[in-house]
Specification:
100 residues, alpha+beta, Translation Initiation Factor Eif1, 5-stranded mixed sheet, 3 helices, 31% helix
Length: 100
Amino acid sequence: MGKICPKCGLPEEICVCEEIAREAQQIKVFTVRRRYGKIMTIVEGINTSDIDIDELARTLKTKCASGGTVKDGNIELQGNHKRRITDELIRMGFNVDVRS
């Protein structure tokens, strides 16, 4: 028998806790101009207690083929990747708000 989820009590194979956590979060994606005119794409609003932010950052960096980091609970990616990140987060089940 598999492991039991501590939150919902269901077996981990059919646990929906992470999906519910993804739907409940309101994530904002926006760009900022940093030193020397470089553009950074910022993903904020991720609850780090429900979602593994390091794994999510790794996935987004791979999808965008860019560098980045996790800083202060936000994911920062090098370059303007609002469209790709938004599409990927929606595909993963997150609610996304895109700001200019």
